[in-house]
Amino acid sequence: LPTLKAFTKPFVLTDAGDKGAKSIEHLRALQQSHHADSNTEPPQEEVDALQELTAYLARPPADDSPQLPRGSFRLIARVLAQWPVKAWGPVLDILRLLLLYAPVSRHYAKSAGNPVPVIIRRCLAKQDTPRIVQLRALFVASNVFAHTEGGVAVVREGHGPSVLEPCLELVGNGDLATRMTAAAVLYNMARLLPRSEDMEVIQLASGLAHHLSEKTDGETQFRLLLALAQLVYCNSAACSLLQSLAFDPEGIEVEGGAQEAKVRAIAKELKHMMERKKKQKEEEKRALALLGLTL
Questions:
Q1: What angle is formed at CA 215 by the lines to CA 210 and CA 216, rounded to 5 degrees?
Q2: Which span out of 5-19, 67-81, 239-253 was modeled with the highest average pLDDT?
Q3: Which pLDDT does position 294 carry in this prediction?
Q4: Beta-sheet strands, E only, within 191-279
Q5: DSSP state at residue 113
Q6: Each residue's pLDDT tens digit, 211-226
Q7: 131-143 vs 176-192: helix axis angle to the nearest 10?
Q8: What is the Cα Rg of the chain in Å?
Q9: What does the pLDDT average to over 103-120?
Q10: How many CA atoms lie within 13 A of 155 on its CB side?
Q11: What is the pLDDT of residues 144-164, one digit of tens each?
């Protein structure tokens, strides 16, 4: 399975080059406007926290990255708790970058105040969420998987359905960036789900099969197919489900373009896994029949 095994890391969105500077400036401007409307001055703690964020993001993520100062954690929590969702854009972009740092990821994974599940519930499942806020929330949902502990805190601690359900809906969205990022989140989830008949495994497998039967762009199609292959790998329950759905990975309508070769390659590998499982099941039935038993 060379194509599947070539993808060992999650899909994440890294720094675009400005190290969060524009989003920090936007956040600062919104804070100043908020305090002006209230006829108050920004507290020194907020001023210091913005400076700390700038300094922290100026250093690229590394194995020896220090922990983010507490004032910055408090600032992010305060904005998410007190500001309306429509104003969350800058802080979501900053959080997307912070989740690339292992100490920040570990902190949130262990914290009862982990903001990621709240962001997902408030932004992804709400129809009235502004598009840019929803997209940035998807970026956060993707980057929470940058480090295993961050992804596990979402997938295996009861928050999985709140990610899975809206992302399965959003992969059918009319916006290309939204579709692609939702598909990336689903792939990231598939890497961490248990190899069992877990309800989320069944829901994800059936949802992916459904969307792959519909026409979409090549990049989204590739990510969805890769997620399904990742889910089926060493998971007999997911494989059996696809067989019961009569899903044929090589029968999907492949979009042309840059991803066509990779789509066909991963479809072939997925078909191979399904056929191998089917053959194993038939051999088990024959062996049991010889013993006078049934499967």
A1: 100
A2: 67-81
A3: 60
A4: none
A5: T
A6: 999 989 999 999 999 9
A7: 30
A8: 22
A9: 93
A10: 25
A11: 999 999 999 988 777 888 999
Average pLDDT score over residue span 243-249: 91
Closest to 18 (Cα-Cα) out of 53, 57, 44:
57
Q: What is the pTM of this model?
A: 0.91
What 8-state DSSP symbol labels residue 148? H
Burial of 70-97, coded b for 16+ CB within 10 Å and e otherwise, reads: ebbbebbeebbeebebebbbbbbbbbbb
- DSSP reduced 3-state for 104: helix
* 191 close to 10: Cβ distance less than 8 angstroms: yes
- Structure tokens of 121? 């519930």
Which comes out higher in pLDDT, residue 163 or 258?
163
Instruction: Find tokens 């104003």 and name the residue.
Output: 87
End-to-end CA separation in angstroms for the chain? 29
Tell me how crowded residue 29 is: count the other CB atoms within 10 A of its CB: 11
- Sign of the dihedral through C-alpha 210, 214, 217, 219: positive
For the record, the structure tokens of 105 come out as 């990821």
Apex 23 CA angle, 136 and 11, nearest 5: 40
Tell me the torsion sign for CA atoms 100, 104, 107, 112.
Answer: negative
